[in-house]
């Protein structure tokens, strides 16, 4: 039987060369540390992924199930994004790069 984990949101940090050079790994670790210290973020999964192919706009972060991609992320924006996820607010509109539309 497969183990199920409770996940409401999945935050993915790009690990392409340019995003990594701009601190993407540090931002992922920051998000994991905040999540680990915040019981109200316990259903947030924080991982890294391959290159999102938006190299000039990085570091890039994707949030699902919302389908939102965020550009030019830094420490303060990462903290703000986590606060907005926690509070159920629209996530980081000023850094919203694009939103994937449902194919319905």
Q: Looking at CATH, which topology would you report?
A: Glutaredoxin
Radius of gyration: 13 Å
Helicity range of the residues? Answer: 25-40%
Tell me, briefly, the overall form: globular
N/C terminus separation: 31 Å
How many strands, what sense, and barrel or not for the largest sheet? 5 strands, mixed
Number of strands: 5
CATH homology-level superfamily: Glutaredoxin
Return the CATH class: Alpha Beta
Number of helices: 3
Q: Residue ranges: pLDDT <50 for 5 or more in a row?
A: none
Structural class, from helix and strand content?
Answer: alpha+beta
Instruction: Tell me the β content.
Output: 15-25%
State the CATH architecture.
Answer: 3-Layer(aba) Sandwich
Q: Indicate how many domains the architecture comprises.
A: 1
Description:
The structure is a single chain. The chain is of the alpha+beta class and 104 residues long. The protein has one domain: Glutaredoxin. The protein has helices spanning 17-21, 24-36, 75-87, and strands spanning 9-14, 44-49, 61-64, 68-70, 96-99. A five-stranded mixed sheet has the order 2-1-3-4-5, covered by helices on one side. Helix 2 runs parallel beside helix 3 (75-87). The longest helix is centred in the N-terminal third of the chain and has 13 residues, at 24-36. It starts with 8 loop residues before the first strand and ends in a 5-residue tail after the last strand. The model has no long low-confidence stretch (mean pLDDT 92).
């Amino acid at each position: 039987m497969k183990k199920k984990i409770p996940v409401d949101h999945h935050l993915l940090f790009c690990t392409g060369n340019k995003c990594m050079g701009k601190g993407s790994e540090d931002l992922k670790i920051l998000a994991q540390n905040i999540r680990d210290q915040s019981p109200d973020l316990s259903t947030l999964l924080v991982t890294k992924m391959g290159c999102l192919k938006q190299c000039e706009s990085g570091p890039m972060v994707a949030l699902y199930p919302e389908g939102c991609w965020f550009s030019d992320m830094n420490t303060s924006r990462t903290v703000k994004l986590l606060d907005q996820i926690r509070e159920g607010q629209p996530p980081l509109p000023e850094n919203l790069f694009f939103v994937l539309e449902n194919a319905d």
